[in-house]
Every structure is written in C-alpha cells, then in structure tokens.
Amino acid sequence: MSEGHRVQETTAASARPAAPSSFGERIGDWAGRQAELDLESSLADLGALLVDGQPLQDTLRQVADYTVAAIPGADGAGVTLLENRGPANVVASAEFVRSLDDAQYSLREGPCVAALDSGRTHVVRSVHADQRWPRFAARAVEHGVLSVLSLPLQVRGVTRGALNVYSRTEGSFDLPAVRIGELFAGPAAVTAATAQILADSRQLAEHLGEALRGRAVIDQAKGILMAVHGCDADQAFALLREASQSSHRKLRDVAHDMVTEIARRPPAK
User: Fold this and answer.
1) What is the pTM for the complete model shown?
2) Contact at 8 Å (CB) between 150 and 119?
3) Residue 253 belongs to what domain range?
C-alpha cells in the first residue's frame, strides 16, 4: 500500500464521527437530551402562566410543579416568596414538601433559609453526611428525603424568595442538575414576582372600590341628615360619626343602614 493511500485512509477515518464507545455513553447522551427537553417544556409552560390571570397561590403551585418537571431527580418542590416580615406565600407540590418547608422556617435552619439569607444556591447531596443543619436533616429523613437543592429567586439582584427542591434519592442533585435548576430559577423568579405584583394590584383595586362605595353611601346618608335636620354637610357628618362611635360600628355600616331604612319607607303622599 502506498504512503499516499495510507494518508487518505487515515484522513477519511478521522472525518467519520466517532460512535459512542459504550451503551452507558448512549444512555448518558439520551438522558442529557431528555433533561434539556424537560427544561424547555417547563420554561414554555412557565411563560404562559401569567396569561390566565389566576390567583397567586395557584400560579405559585404551578411554578412548583414545573420545577419538579424541569430539574432531574426532583420528587417535590416548594416556592416561597418573601414579605417584610419574612417567608410568606409558601406553596408546595406535595404535602411532604410543605412539612419540610415549614420545618425549615420554624427551626430557622436549612438550605432554604440559607438561600434566602445569602442569595446563593445551597445543595445537600446527602442529608446523612451533611452536618450543617442537623435538626432539619432529621426531619428530612423522617419524610424519606435524602437530598435537597435550594435556589434563590432573584430579580435584578434582589432575593424575592426561594425554590426548594427535594429528592428521595441520595446524590440526586449533581452539577448538571444544579445548573438546570439555576437556569430555571431565573424565569421562575420573574414569573413569581410578577404574579405577586398582579395579586397586590388586584387587592388594591378591590380596596379602592370598597372605599369609593363606602364614600358614596356616606355622602347619601349625609344628604338625608341634612334634609331631616336642616344642617350643613359638616354637621351631618358629625351626627354620623357620633352614631358610629356610640354604637361601636363602622361609619360606613351606620350610613348603609340609614340609607337602606329610608329606601324601604313608602313614598310620602
């Protein structure tokens, strides 16, 4: 065989893609692709959540469900949003998740508490071997949980809450799983924070509506008192306030009863 022919054979062989050397490598490639597809699907579902306009708790519960679907090895997940007084709006994909989240907040120890305080990801690869939070570890073992991943939910560098991810398998959250979790946590934080803002806006609108309706009925009651007693608006309001204080009832309720009573009377002939 000529030297040129051998070079051609070598070049052709190197140009062919190398086949996976073992069944294990092929399984690894498939698992990696499946994890990528799960992440893509969960992110797509996450992006559609705010369109429905559903209550905050329902949105957060779906975020928890999508977290389980996105992160390899996850058996359950919880979402916690912070308010001024600390953790609030805690939702879970399963009952054991809620129990463990509550345990962390009552004990003031655990990976989620650490993620909230530090704004950094915390991983417990084995609750038996990890010595950082022994009381939490004991609770986790009681529920059959052997590894935990806690991810801060941050928007523009501000920690707004955390994702708690639990597995019943030791060592579930390796570096690829943690990376997927961190990729998912960014959009999840925006979704959760936006859902909270929308819920607060709806609540404010309801309160304003109630205030306006209360103001309207108070004005009607003042008009009635002005007509009956021949007084001005300030004097009528003073009479309403006096009735409210003496009966230990809200001014709006006193005014509503007065207007309702007048409306029930038959018209004067």
Assistant:
1) 0.63
2) no
3) 207-264
